[in-house]
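Sorry to interrupt, but I need a hand with the structure work. Could you write out one complete protein record for me, on any chain you like? Just paste the record in under my message, thanks.

. . .
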Amino acid sequence: MGTLIRMSPEGQVTIPTDVREALGLRAGEPVVFERNLAGEMVIRKASDDDEPLARRVAEMREVSRRYAHLRDGRPTDEIMRDLRGDDPFPP
């Protein structure tokens, strides 16, 4: 017999602790919902093969975060001077 969980008005459900532990899920990890041949929806832990797009998006967000200082409207030459110092061609 399964566990009855109610969905929030926002469409969210809480995955019970015993299910998370059985799947080896931790907060922030992706899961996959897929329909099996019987028409039932199955939840499983996502593998690397499931997440090429999500992984790329996460990588792009990290790069964007690291280089956020480039979006502050300063001229490129000024930013490069800050990074390299006064010598435009450091050894």
